[in-house]
Amino acid sequence: MNKNLPRLLSVRDLVKMYNLTAQSQLSQNFILDKNITDKIVKSAMIDSNNLLVVEVGPGPGLLTRSILETGVPNMIVIEKDARFLPALTIIQDDILEIDHEKILTTAQINKVSQENRLHVIGNLPFNISTPLLVQWMKMLSKRSGIFQTSDITMSLMFQKEVGDRIVADTLSPARSRLSVLVQSLCKAKKVDAVLIQLIALKEPILNVPIDQYEMVVRYFFGQRRKTIQSLLKTLTKKLMSDEVDCLMKGLEQLDLNLSLRPEKLTCEQFCHITKIFCDNSISIPVN
Ligand SMILES: C[S@@+](CC[C@H](N)C(=O)[O-])C[C@H]1O[C@@H](n2cnc3c(N)ncnc32)[C@H](O)[C@@H]1O
């Protein structure tokens, strides 16, 4: 710490000074206890070996301060609410809309190599946490945007139920579309009740195009209480007869237990099923 620099105002003071009251339409709730943000950063194991740390929604910036204190060489924060701009150096943008190249160029990174380490962190606004995670999984599967390196960790705070769904395995009733999508690309672990850590798999389970995969997984979890057999029966009514033949032939070869519910299927099994849809150019009609 440079002793010649003026002391930073506390985040509590900044919140008061700029009248930064939390706004519900942006799912804002602020952590104002430095012990907590330090603990989050420690659990996330953020250190100076990262090429870049990207924080979503810094708000008044206490988590940001704890991250910066680890000595990370390059950090970019994206915040939609312009009220926080005077308190931090921020890219003002919507994380769902931002051109990810802008994140890299702002960080003055023009080339990402496979060995570079990236850490994405955020106490996510709960109203966008699921669509954001799905968008990131799509980018991760294509290694696009900020996800060009293979060494990626995400430390993300979700509402407890969403976190439970992300980490749920085939034995858990909380297993959902999100569990399957995320676990096909990342090792997902719960650090505490709300902090989930996702480490991108060097060899992802996902071996089919993610858009088709999501279409299949979404359909099967659309009515999660039904068995696979019953879901297939409803689906085949909407398909052409040659598509039904190809689908049934393909499924026979998979040796699936059709009396199971979708939550019991592994990511690998969803990949096999998606492959049948892809190989035979079958799409699932909406409704
Ligand atoms: C739950 S608060 C977390 C604030 C701060 N990181 C903390 O932990 O105290 C979520 C933050 O995300 C911001 N936000 C909400 N929607 C956003 C979006 N679409 N893109 C970027 N930031 C967004 C909010 O303005 C808010 O600052």
Summarize the structure in words.
α2 packs across α3 (62-68) and α8 crosses α11 (267-279). This protein has helices at 11-17, 34-44, 62-68, 100-106, 129-142, 160-167, 177-183, 210-222, 228-236, 241-254, 267-279; strands at residues 52-56, 75-79, 91-92, 117-123, 151-157, 186-190, 195-200. Strands 3-2-1-4-5-7-6 form a 7-stranded mixed sheet, with helices on both faces. 38% of the residues lie in helices and 13% in strands. The mean pLDDT is 93. β4 (117-123), α5 (129-142) and β5 (151-157) form a beta-alpha-beta unit. By secondary structure, it is α/β, with parallel strands linked by helices. It folds into 2 domains: 11-200, Vaccinia Virus protein VP39 (Rossmann fold, 3-Layer(aba) Sandwich); 210-279, rRNA adenine dimethylase, C-terminal domain (Helicase, Ruva Protein, domain 3), CATH 1.10.8.100. The structure holds S-adenosylmethionine. Residues 26-31, 56-59, 62-63, 78-81, 94-96, 123, 125, 128 line the site of S-adenosylmethionine (SAM).
Specify Rg, calculated over alpha carbons: 22 Å
CATH topology descriptor of the largest domain = Rossmann fold
Q: Judging by the overall fold, what is the CATH architecture of the largest domain?
A: 3-Layer(aba) Sandwich
Q: Main β-sheet, in a few words? A: 7 strands, mixed
- Small-molecule binders: S-adenosylmethionine
* Share of helical residues: 25-40%
Which CATH class of the largest domain applies here?
Answer: Alpha Beta
State the strand order across the main sheet. Answer: 3-2-1-4-5-7-6
Number of DSSP-assigned strands:
7
Return the domain count.
2
Q: Helix count? A: 11
Q: Superfamily at the CATH H level of the largest domain?
A: Vaccinia Virus protein VP39
Oligomer state equals: single chain
Shape: elongated
Strand content: 5-15%
**How are helices and strands ordered from N to C?**
HHEHEEHEHEHHEEHHHH
Protein name: 948_t:CDS:1
